[in-house]
Task: structure prediction
Amino acid sequence: MSHRHSHRLSRLLNIGLPYFWLGLFFLLPFVMVLRISLAEPTLAQPPYTALWEWVEQGVLQIRLNLANFQLLREDDIYLAALLNSLWVALVGTVCCLLLGYPMAYAIATAPERRRILLLMLIILPFWTSFLIRVYAWIGLLNANGLLNTFLLWLGVIDEPLKILHTQMAVYIGVVYSYLPFMILPLYANLTRLDPTLLEAAADLGCRPFRAFLRVTLPLSMPGIVAGSMLVFIPVVGEFVIPDLLGSPGSLMIGKLMWTEFFANKDWPLASALAIVLLAVLVVPFVLMQRLQQDDEGTRT
Amino acid sequence: MTIQLFAQRFLFSAFLLAFSALGHAEGQVHIYNWNDYFAEDTLSGFQARTGIRPVLDVYDANEILEAKLLAGASGYDLIFPTAHPFASRHLQAGLYQPLDKTKLPGLDKLDPAIMTSLAGMDPGNAHLVPYMWGTSGLGLNPDKVKAALGEDAPMDTWALIFDPEKAAKLAGCGISLLDDPTEVFSAALAYLGKDPNSLAPADLDAAAELIKAAHPHVRYFHSSQYISDLANGSLCVAHGYSGDVLQARERADEADKGVKVVYRIPREGAALWTDVMAIPKDAPNPEAAHALIAYLLDPKVIAAVSDYVYYANPNLAATPLIEAELREDPEIYPPAEVRARLFVPSERSERELRTLNRLWTRLKANR
Amino acid sequence: MSSLPDRRLLESWQDPKAAPYVRIERLTKKFGDVYAVDDVSLNIFQGEFFSLLGSSGCGKSTLLRLLAGLEYPTSGRIHIDGVDVTDVPPYSRPVNMMFQSYALFPHMTVEQNIDFGLRQDRLPRRERAERIGEMLDLLKITPLRKRRPDQLSGGQRQRVALARSLAKHPKLLLLDEPLGALDKRLRENTQFELVNLQERLGTTFVTVTHDQEEAMTMSSRIAIMEAGQIMQIDTPTAIYEFPNCRFVAEFIGSVNLFEGKIVERQGDQVLIEAQFGGLMRMRSFQPHAIGTPVMVAIRPEKMRLCETPGGDGVNRLQGIVEDIAYLGDVSIYRIRTGSGLLAEMTLTNIQPRTEQALTWEQEAVIEWSPTSGVVLTE
Result:
């Protein structure tokens, strides 16, 4: 009896713990942000109004301020920033994929002993602060930075390339910073790939490149999706890279949020922006899951 | 078993940590200051004199300090906001506690002009003590400016940024602007000969047009990046804070690669800013905060800070103790006729400020 | 060499005029310092069901992979259908393989798996569809055609793998432990199906197996491999009845080995002085010199109880029944002789067990005929 009891308890824990975790670290903060997004800014501590108050005995007054969402809809700068952020994230993700896939593939197919070394080299930059690494790119991409000095010395160029404070620099920073997030899930996926599948493909008359397209690539799709998500989502909200490396005109949702939150002390509008961003990122997720479920459905 | 033991130990050490964190009420003062805004021995001197242990956190933007204050329970005893518009706003929000002036005997040595100006937002100077003051003007690389505009090009003018003809010539060697709409708009208004604090729509429109025209020649908008870029020669005109530009000069001298940096207060006028000390309402240890303010009112102590940070301080008794090079630099301690051209940013309502900030975002994005 | 003399028709491997379909010449494959395949020469003929039999690590799988082109030899040549394919990559060889793990593509349906090879050949859509239908029919898996591998049982997967490897109508099919992943019951049924299929299609099969029963049941010929070398190539019967060495004799089934020395040759028979004391007379076509140390290998079921003691005492052993293993259809008796030798004899249980003559601790004399075993020198 007691055995069964403890079994049930552990099952409850197994199921309950993730939900508890999600509730505590996702749902609760989300509700808090949602709450703030429906308030009005005010000069106080905290700098937003309460949503409800007891006006007199037994009367609860609830004020929901939708003006923030309205402003986001009316002022096209937010839409422009959102689209630009999505575009930057898309380009960054595609670059990470194009660069990261061959790297992950090379590591996954390297001899076992060398794999650990190569993985270490991928992870090693994480031991330095992200901020410092992004700052380092300023030194590299500067008009009189290492890259330009080197190219001038080589004689490839006559005058320094203007890379820093351009969109190009943002892409460089994004790809550099997020490449490991693409490589690691891809690597994990590719190492699990059964090499006899490629032998089977070859045996059935398939040349190596076609075998890659028809076997390796489709089977690494989960890794591609995981890596792309890990890159795309944080890059949409990225603040540091466009701020330090980007052009003065670069309009990113993360920078806008910073302005609203810090410079304008408009926490409600910043929260509304965060909610909209979340919605924009969650919708494709849900759609994808639907598609996958449909796929399962047709199979069984 | 072992996991349980580990958990117990973990909890135990967590308790220890929590208690040590609570222990600060006794003899610690938690300071939140700009980075690099004390002399190297300021805090160690304070601990030697009072026995109170200083704990320093730093920030690099008023906004960060403000966000922490507004969120509440920041845990800091003494903070160093800029008077306009930050400290004034915090006063309106009631975030500071009044000072116990009996504990601050050095107050009478402070520059009455600055005190009077501060009293405008802080009646009776009840909450704020000025710490340092300076101007926002132009950091220049004279060699490069001359190379672009000719030997006899004037340096002390906003025209370097707002005259499209000049700016176009200087764009190649690099122009930067502060990422702060108040600063940039008042500079533009000053260049136009208007009241730098004007809120008149026509004036703001004119300023916005001016900034738009300058935009293509601006390499970036940033409030600290220009320090290192001036020092290594990758900028020739930077809209910046006096002390920061002088820091860049110091770095350029140290690097000794022939990069020259100068600071100029534009003849059209420049913003004068004051950083103040204040004690948050919920400070855990206001006693210790008072002791630290009193220590910083010591002319010798504050003179050493000025020597280190290249900013003027409002303590008149300290002026003679400051290194002559600094004291006699007209860009740091400007003569009366220059000071007359400086202006103090005026108060703006929250709504006005937000409108300005959003306009700023739009301007920067060139939309 | 040792072949059944009374066959009427010559099998292809006995016909000196027949050209081998697969010709392996002095093939060697080294992994580092290890010889996985060591100087192997071998001919396989059209329509054969050829098995490579050996324990794990004997090199049989490597030999198969060399045929498929998945490994390249260190030295030696491989000819298939008269063409030297030694350096031809796997995707250009006229060979298909069924992998031990089946290696089905998990992201494709059964149909798509079968179609995979056909698409590589750029066959027209109609023809591909026909071929797929034919394969689905042949292996009776038509109802499964829309499923993915993870929705199939082990036996179903085996059929799909077979269908996929047969879809291109290869002349030569390589099968790596084709039944290895099936449970015993399924394996026995599938053995016969595989043979039927092979006979129907006429495809040359080369399989690798470690299961001697499987090899015996299915193969036209078997090559016994050990340490990278082929010990004997022959029909299952010949391998069983006429092993050419001690290793093969012991590897297949159980065997009694009696050591001795040739003392006399009498026509096609030799007289051997056995180490256990008596004399043995065995048929042997080999030209042994007098005095050669030899081993006489006799299968336990070739032994019988001696009912007429006396005579010359040749091919006879006397001992005590030490152990009886009752297997239902047969019983295995272990008889210990006075000199300590242990001999094994299998008797069919014609009578119910309770009425059998031989019990534990009983004195018994067993004997065998001169044609019931072979004389081995190594």
